[in-house]
What we know:
With about 850 residues, the chain is an alpha+beta fold. Helices cover about 20% and strands about 35% of the residues. Helix 3 runs antiparallel to helix 4. It starts with a helix and ends in a 5-residue tail after the last helix.
Amino acid sequence: MSTMNFNNNAAQAALLGGAVINDPYAIDDGRFALEHILLRLWSWYDGTTQESIDHYYLGLSLYAQKAFADLGPTELDRMMGRNMLLKTMDELASCYHPATRRFTAVSGRTGVAEMLGINEGVNAIMHTVSKRGALHDVYNPDRLGMPAAGHDLPPDLVARQQLVGPWMPLWMGNIVDDKPLPFQLTAADRQYGNQRVYPFWKRSYLGHHYGLATLDIGCGNPTIPVMAQWARADAPADNLQETGLLLMRFGLNETEFYDSLYHGTKQSNANGSVGTQGGPVCSVQHKNKAVVFTTPNLNFNDYHRAMPEKITSIQSTVALANYQPSPTWKLYIDGKPAAPALPVRAKQSSRITIHDGVTYIGLIPIPATNLGRSEEILITDGGEPVALQGGGKAAPTLRINSYYYFNPDQPFDPKTADWTKTDRAYGGFIIEMGDEKDYGSFAAFQKHIASVKLSLKWDDAAGVAHAVYKSGKDVIEAGFRPEYNGGWSKNVPSIECFPYRRVNGQWPYLPEGVERETTLSIQGTAGTLEKSGAVLRHQPGLMAYLLTEPISGNYVFSNPLPDPQYMALAVPGGLKITADGRLALAQITANTRANTLDVRYAAKEGQVGDDMATALVLAGYAALPAVTVNDKAVKPVEMTLDGAPAAVVPLAGAKFTDAFTARYVASLAIQETALKTTVAAQAWLRYKAKQEHYVLTEPRNGAFSFWRQWPGNCAIEAGIPGGMVVATDGDIALQRIILSARERRVEVDYAPYLQQDRDGNPIPNRAKALLVFGLDQAPSVRLHNDEYKGAVDRVTINGKPAYLIPLFGDDPATLKEGVEKRYTEAMATLPAR
């Protein structure tokens, strides 16, 4: 495992390069990585990706995604590439704001210059479908030294790949240019399994002239955990001088926003990181409003820069950037113009508003715990310009600092500080965005901001700050625990940061089973996905995806993963699509305006059997659509079902037979039950608490694969439908186990080097045997690529019969002694199901 972009490019080299030189080992490695690491983990594991939206890193991954979609050796490879690419294109197009010509999105690893003057590959990709153009600053004579284009995915490479095939369907240009504003994207960020149960949440809200985005738990090292960007005029911005930018962080002394460093040093690094500065940024966002908390970490942990020798201030900081030669924006405090000279003083009870052309910004301080301060709020300049990652030099225009501590004459002393009080301190800002479309005038916006109410109550026993923010018709409530000690490698559940969050009495993010939802698309495992009048029913627990674009009349229904499932589709206008069995990897696009149906379909080797689909069935249409399957025109076979016209579309070379009707009717009865049954409950794996989760797949009919991305030493127990259960009698660093009751088959991958410590000794409490329960005959077994040909002895474990398979070459007869005790002790280390 590595980062998303590295895995994408390494897998691309293995699969595509292996195909060029006809190397089956390279092809197998590349194809495994394409499906399991790229498609399942980095793309479809949750509602976002590791690199969304990291302007240049994401470009490195997109280059590979596009290559798989265009050049994959098989239809299955190309389908997996297309499904990855479409999901990423949907996220990019949804976050792209046509007014700013930039992306309203948080970023884990990026440079601020990519939000200002640099067009990275993601902009160039939007440009391929935009009717108005998605590039900015190309002819700007004053880009502050920034290049017009980035180098990781340069425009010429985007263009060359476009010549092979489009980055996205051309109709998605309507989402880029003409998305219905306001527009919103919400995505679950499960941190590649680290936040599997309580995901982090990304939200992007696009008003007519502005955008606001937050990551709800901004701990670890995100470059952009909170951002807002806007256009000053009622026209698309051509240059960075025509936009404004807002960022927010916790900081010590002068909070840094632009200067990237080598981690923990004072040495600038044009490809480094700005870094978390001793405290997180934690948000609850509802549309154009965000309640954003900060807090000092215990001992200022996670300070990713060189710790200051003297700490003269501790603060929450909002940075504002305006690069007009003579800024025309106007700053108000409690409705009155702010003094022109800096610094400007304000109270933590103040209301700060900014009028910048057609866009309005409101800042309401969350009064900070007083750790010793002589100032409450100071508005200062943004400091000296610094070298930007990607090129150029710049600094914010203003910093608005709300202080926990401020005493230049008596620095904060970490050695004598009351760390209980400091760790429980909290503060922050509430950010409200608006524009002429929302309020009609800046005066109306100011009146609104003056009317908002914030109430705070501290629960000392629970260590929770209870906040209630009333704004217009909205009530945002949150319990914030300042002592939350999260981080990208700590895996602390987000519920320990926010015990509760409510907006107008309801959970503010997505319901269980929905991983991402935008105004025009929805992805999830809920069993029913609906958007723009289209409905996709699928098997609960398996991933599905629905993308709509009503202007062009396109509706995309997808089974994005090669996990066969039953699906039933309803298209606006009456067309209904079902199948005679489970669909493998599928992407079905219905165009209601052109009356066309484009089907892309591929099944994996081994995905065969009576329950697999051979054809689609169309019904409810006024006129039979023109159909293509994998780019080939197909003439549907017309028939009658239940007295109504219907048509059959054979899939992937299947032929229509007279027996089809009976097969289809029989399948429908099975489907109704399947569409109401949660698949995830059918197969399970137990492992040690707080270790990495697994990816569950069905590589062939009746076989279930449990793949652990980061193998950790622990006992394991896995079960599948039919009562087959497999367990170890000790710890093993398991990579993958495949179980099939139908085949009476067990396949285990566990690299030998992972079963040893650095000195070559067995890992502590290493398992000796695999125990297989629930079979009436001995299974066939593959142990790390080698077919096991030794004896398979039958034993009784706690009254249950099992088959014993040695994992490391021991004599099965010798392993029988003490196996029940070893098994019982191993299972006792695992959490209950």
